[in-house]
Every structure is written in structure tokens, then in C-alpha cells.
Amino acid sequence: MDSIYTFSALQPIWPELFMAFMVLGLLLIGVFKGHQSTRLLTFLAIGGLLFVAFLLLQTPTSKEPLLHGKIVIDLFAVNMKLIFITALIASYLLSIKYLYDTGFVKFEYPVLIMMAGIGMFFMVSSHHMLATYMALELQAFSLYILAAFNRDSLKSAEAGIKYFILGAVSSGFILFGVSLLYGFTGHLNYSEMADVVSGLTGPERTGAVFGMMFVLSGVAFKIAAVPFHMWIPDVYEGAPIPVTAFFALVSKLAAIALLFRLLLGPFETLVADWQIAIAFLSVMSMTWAAFAGLVQNNLKRLMAYSSIGNIGYALLGIVTLTSQGFSATLFYLILYMVMTAGVFGVLLCMQRDGVVLRHLEDLAGMSKNHPVLAYAMAILMFSMSALPPFSGFFGKLVIFQEVIAQELYMLAVIGVVSSVIATYYYLRVVKVMFFDEPDMPYTGGFGPFRSFVITASVLFAVFYILFPDSLMPFTQRTVNDLLPHGVEPIELIKSSIEAEQGSLPSFQELMKNAFPVER
Amino acid sequence: MGFPILSLLTFLPLVGVFFLAFIIRGDQEFVERNAKHTALFVSLFVFILSLMLLFEFDKSDAGFQFVESYEWISLWGMNFTLGVDGISLFFVVLAGFLTPICIIASWRSIKTRVKEYMVAFLILETFMMGTFLAMDAFLFYIFFEGVLLPMFFIIGIWGGVRRVYSSYKLFLYTLLGSVLMLLAVLTLYYQVGTSSIPDLIASPVAANLQMWLWLACFASFAVKMPMWPIHTWLPDAHVEAPTAGSVILAGVLLKMGGYGFLRFSIPMFPEATQYFMPLIFWLSIVAIIYTSLVALVQTDMKKLIAYSSVAHMGFVTLGMFTLTTQGLQGAVFQMISHGLISAALFLCVGVVYDRLHTRDMAQYGGIVKNMPRYATIFMILMLGSVGLPGTSGFVGEFLTLLGAFQADILVAIFATTGVVLGAAYMLLLYRNVVFGPVTNKEAAAMSDVNARELLILVPIALMVIALGIAPNYVLDRTGPALEKLQNHYEYHIGQDMGDTNNG
Asked: CB 3.0 to 4.6 Å from B201: which of A243, A286, A488, B267, for a disulfide?
């Protein structure tokens, strides 16, 4: 029993331990060297994250939970953490110059991001409801502080408070759901809970479904799926831009990873129930974001609606209930993450006399004043609207391919039509940059790190078409590792339908019947 | 595999783009001059390659030729496959022919952002070539929809007063149709298990499913064509686009819709095609008569030609869906002929627009006195559009109507009235602009076409007459592929009839 706390036995969680020590170290350096050490701290953090990536690659993976069944370090967790590290490094690179330019350089910034990173790492690794909750809160609290980071700005403070209150409500949802689940199953550990849930029948099963729905609502809040999206436009708008970039890049990915783990873990046998819930979230997000985005003039709010819409498309992959579909979701989010990094890089460059511009009109005539930046932004916007031949097209292609393969035609039609509507607001950005008369040029300068992120993102968007095979095997491997006993969720729903003959027509059938076809 | 002529045709313009974007540096005048020359040189080279393709093409072979295949998305078994057959051959040549003409036509009239303009046209050429050459459904889709990207900029940056509205309209109309086609392609991919176009043609899906897929593809191709009642983006786009934009739009982009029908809708969904045939017929009739009447009352020259394009495309869809030898041949011929004639008509409008900066017919009149050469060329093209025997327009209309009479006499009678209406509005246009009393002193002072304008107008006018006199040069090459298409269609329809008779 004692042996599990020896240093070498803890090898699977060395990365997290190292990060935790790094947080303390960075804080100490910051305290002694003052706010001007932020640059140094950021580079130390990046270096540390690279070392963490190295550690992760050495980590032995296994499906066996560790630390009394609280944590599991499997291939899924390791791969997701590698993605997080990329995104964390990108958000560090995006933020440095901004912090110095606008003058609220504070050494806590890199530390808080690292702390949120630890939370995310545990979110994907947790194997126990309480561990999940702790990890979620560790991440969320760092994000609340970051949202209000520019504490002298009324908007930023408002964003922080709003995020905190609504976030607390969603945490309440999750806790309530967890307590219901605990009441009906008697377990908090994922695998034990899954075993009990699969045997539940009648009202007890209904109770567990209730618990699951509360937990899912809480997670839906974290990924900002409609109707749990109200916080995101305000928080995106109020928070300082690098923080918004960090939200857009990393936090959703972590919540989706957690969703994967929950849906394919403790809730695997409730698949018929969560499929409808996720489909509802997905359809609502796609359509609502498409219409609401049309009237936005603030670029950060626009990106907020864009992210809501994109989460809708990503969720479509989950609705298909196949490992390919889950892989498509992950694939889509990675592509989206890369594009978002570039877009926020461009937004960060939009400064005039130390003031960051955030309105659509401020882009006017950018193609004349800053042609390279304008072309980069145009490519990213077209990519986001899924116009071929850019990478965003492949993201949507993979999602819709899986949706069509499962014959969910109605969802596919809703999806593509709302994507056309959403295209309008991406086109507006291009229109303002290219068709309108130029305003004054920006004065902020690009900075080498920002330029690096923008360049990488644009090159990825343009040249992905040449290497379409490159990312999908990775996401597929990652997701396959998560499948319960290697069974596709779609098989579970089929067996559950066979078990309850004469029950309501399943969602699957409902969607197929939308376009009646003889077979 | 030999000489990769099709890949060169498709990607050579991108080499030009690379050269323009990254190599040409210096002061503005130097960049502009070199950008024009580079773009012209590259597009002429592509045109010569397309002529080589035309001469090397084996006219007895009905299948795909010069096929090139490279591994692309191996996970889904999708290959990057290019090929050309009798249906696509002349569209490739047309695209290769019109691009250098567009670049010469813009030589003086484009004054801002010349480099970007040339880049947009070269990218557009890549996408046009790719659309006609792709032998994989996903590849086709990428090129087909990619066309929107340069077109959006060409209209939006270098267009007229309402350019923003028009570019949005073009983009969103076409996109909405295209995404539905994407779903159809995905469904086919899952039903048949491949995305290779020849394989998809070889194994049609269940008749009931065909109906949905046909409608999805129809949404895409009918917008692009454009068919009544979803043609309204076209007049807007034409009016606001710069001259060269209108030329390429009328000359090549509209043909993508017709090409799509021939490549996807008819061979892949034969039963659905038969089922929806009356719908197409009546939509075509409405397009022919209604848009001809609309064209009659236009005062804007470009708008008149735009509406005439919709009417002429009505003949194309009519002929194509008769599924008779004459109808199919006529449809393809009409598309090529219209590609030349309408492109040249837009160039003619561009010639006088460059001088007077108005497209209002009332501002012109009597210019035959000061512009005799212009009047001659304009007349040849106008008569071609009317369908006078001896011009290419006649062959196309005559063949499509022959096909229509075999399929449905009532439809054919209605369609024939379109010929009369076509003559009415074109002659009206010609009379108002070229003849009549001189009402505008400035119009009377315009100089005649210069050498550069002759260089682009004369070859097209000659082609219109040459194709009118010797249509067999085209028909011999399109024949085998279209015959194969017709046999394929009849085989599947006949099989169904057999089934019902037996059952």
C-alpha cells in the first residue's frame, strides 16, 4: 500500500507534479523579481511545458486507474495533454507582447495559465467524480481570475464576475448531478459507476439519467453550447484579448475531453439518452450562433458566436455514436484551435497608439495598410466558413461524412444550411478588410512570436489539403483508446433497443425517417 | 502515365501566382507591368497546353483520356484523379482561351491593385480547370466551390457601385446550393463506397434515394447554371463585375452547372432524371420566355446580355434533358457557343464602357459612323446570339430544338418562341447602340476599337463563324462521350421498364 507513493511509482503523474512545482517556482521568482520578470517567467513556463511534453512521451500508459482509482493515465489522456501543451504554448506566445504594450504586465499571468493547465490535465485524467470536480474547479477558478485580469477595466471586472457567478451555478449543477448519481449507484468511481448503471432498471435508471443530465448541463456550460452559452459573448468581450484567446484555444478542448470521458465512461450504457441531449445542444448551437452572429459588430463577440457554432458542429460528431465520429469531433476541434490561434494573433496586432481595437469597422481597408495581415485574416475567415480548399473545409467534411454515414440526414441538412448562414458573418470581416475604404494604419507592430503563431496557423490552413492524412490517424488512435471494452457506442444503442422492444422510436430512426428512402 | 498535361493545365497558374506573390518586388509601376506580363504569359502557356490537349485528344474514345492518378486521402480511398473526355474537353479549351483574353481586356481598365487582380484570375483559372478535369467527386467539389473565392474578390474589389451586395449574393446563393451537393456526394460515397466519378456512374443507387440526391445536386447546378427562378444573382453579378469578370462568369462559370448535370445528375441518377424531366422542361421554358421578355425591357446593356444568358441556358437544360442525341449534342455545343458569344458581347460592352463609362443604351446611338469596325464585330456576335445560320449560335439552338421536338412537341413549340424573342431583344440592343440618330455628342466622338481590343474580339468573332460553318469539329469529339452517356441512361431506364413489365 505504501509503495504507491514512492517517487518512481508516481511516474505516470510526474508531468502534473512537475507543473505544480513549476507554478510554485514561478510564483517565487515573480515575487522576488517583480512584474517586469513576466517575460522571463513566460519563457520559463514554455520551457517547462516542453519538458512536460517530453515527460508525457515517456509516460507508461495503462487502462488501470492509479492512486486508489482516482486517476487514469491512458493513451487518450496523454495525447490530449500533448494537444493542451501546444495550445498553452500558443497562448503564451500570443500574450507576451500585449502585456507589455498595454502596460498591465503582471507576473501572475503566466502562473495562472499554468495553473489552469494543471486543472485541464487532471480533467482528462480523472477517473472519479470528485477528482473531476476538483480538477474542473482548479481550471475554472484560474479562468475566473484571468477574465477579470485587467481589474481597472469595468468590462473586464464585469466579465470576471459574470463568469464566476454563472460558473458557480454550473458547478452546482454538476455537484447536484453527481450526488444524484451517487445516490442511485452508490459509487463515484467511473468504472464502478458504469457497472452499476448498466444494471439499473425502472425508476432507478431514470434517477441516474437525471443525474447524468445535470452533469451534462454543467459540462455544456463549460463548452458554451446553446442554451448554456449566455456567458460567453460577455466574457469574451470583457476579458483582455490574450485571455479570450486562451479561453478559445484551450478551455473548450479540455471540457470536450472531459465530455468524452464521461460519455464513454460512466454513462456508456445510457447512450440512447445522452444522444438526444447532445443532438439538441448541437442543433441549437449551430442554428442560434449562425443567426446571432449576423448582427455582431464587436470582433470578440463575433468570435464568441463563432465558437458556439463550432462547438455545435463538433458535437455532431458525438451524436453519430461511432469512434470515427468522436475522432471527427476531436479532429474538428484541433483544426478550429489552430485557426483560432491565428485569428486572435491578428486581433492582437490591431492596436492604435496603445489602444486595442475591437470593432469590425476598425478592420476597414486593412488590405491596403497591412496587406499581409489582411490576407492572413481572410484565409482564416474562409477557412472558418469551411470554404475549400482550406483546412476548415476538411474539418466539416469529416464531421458530415460521419453524420451521413450514420444516415442522420436531417442533422446534416440543418448543419450545412446554418453553416451557409454563418458564412455571412465571416464574409463581412473579409468585406470590411478588402472592400471598404482604409482607416488609419495600426501602430502596434507584429512582434516575432505573434507573427510566428499567425504564420503557422495560416500555413496550416492553406497547406492542409496536401497532407489530408496527417492528423486523422492520431485522433482516431486517441479516441479508440477510450472506447469501453473496444465497443462502438452505436452497438450499445442497438443492443439496448433490442432489449426494449416496442419502446419509442429511437432518435436514429427519427432522423432517418425525415427523408424516407426505401432500402 | 506519360506527360502530366492535365496537372500542368491545372496547377501552372498557381506557379504564376507564386511568382506574382513572392518574387515580383519593387516600385508600383514596375510591379504592375510585370504582373500583367507574367499573368498573360502564364495564361497563354496554359492555353497552348489546352490546344495541345485538343490536338492529341483521341476522338474515337468515349472514355476518359490522359488520366492521372495520385494517392491523396488514402484513409478514405480518395485519389487525386484527373481525366478528360469528350464532354469536358471543350470546356477546358474554352477556359484556357478566355483567361488570356480576360487579362488583355483588363490591361488598361484595371488601375488599382493590379497584382492582386492578376493573382485572382490565375487562381480562378486553376479552379476552373480543376472543376472540368476532376474525376473524383470530392476533388470536383473542392474546385467547384473554390471558384467562389476569387470571384468574390473580383466582383467585390474591382466591381461597380453595388459590388458588395452582388458579391455577397453570388457567394451565398452558390454556396447554399453547393453544400447540399456535398451532402449528396457524401451519401453516394457511403452508398457506393467510392468517390471516383466513373465508379459512381457505373453503379447507380436505389431509385428512391436517387430522387433526394438528384434534388440536392439540382440545387447546386441549377443555381450555377442559372435556371429560373434562382437566376437573380446573375444579373446583379454581371452588372457589378468588371468586364473581365463578366466575361469569365458568362463564358466559363455558367457552364459548370451544365457540366455538373452531364457529369453527375444524368448518369448517376438516371431514374430520377427521367422522373424530373418535365420539371426541367417547364423551368427551361419559363426561363426562355420569361427572361427573354425581361431582357426586352432592359436599358442597361450588361443586364440585357445577362438575361439573355439565362434564356440561352434554358435551351441548354432543355436540350440536355431530352436525352436524345441531338439534344445532348446541341446542349454541349450551345454551351461552348454561348461561352464564346456572351463573353465577346460583354467585351463589346466593355469597349464602349471604357470610353463613355455608362451602360445605359440611351446614351449611345449612331456610333456606326465613328466606330465602323466595332459595329461590324458587334454585328457578327449579335447575329451569333440570335442564332443566324452560319454562326455557332444557330447550330446549338437548332440541335437543342430538334431534340426537344423528339421529346415533347408542346415544349418544343414554346421553346421555339424563344428564338423569335431572342432576335427581338438582340436586334433592339444593336439598333439602339449602333444605329439610330446620334443623341450624345460624346458617344459620337468615341474612337474606334484599337489594336488591343481587336486582338481579343477578332479571334472570338472568327471562332463563332468557324464553328457555325464547321460544327463537326466539335460534334465529332463530343459525340462518342455523349452517346455513351445516352446509352448508359437508356440502359438503366430500359432495365427498369423491363422490371416492371416482368413484375
From this structure: B267
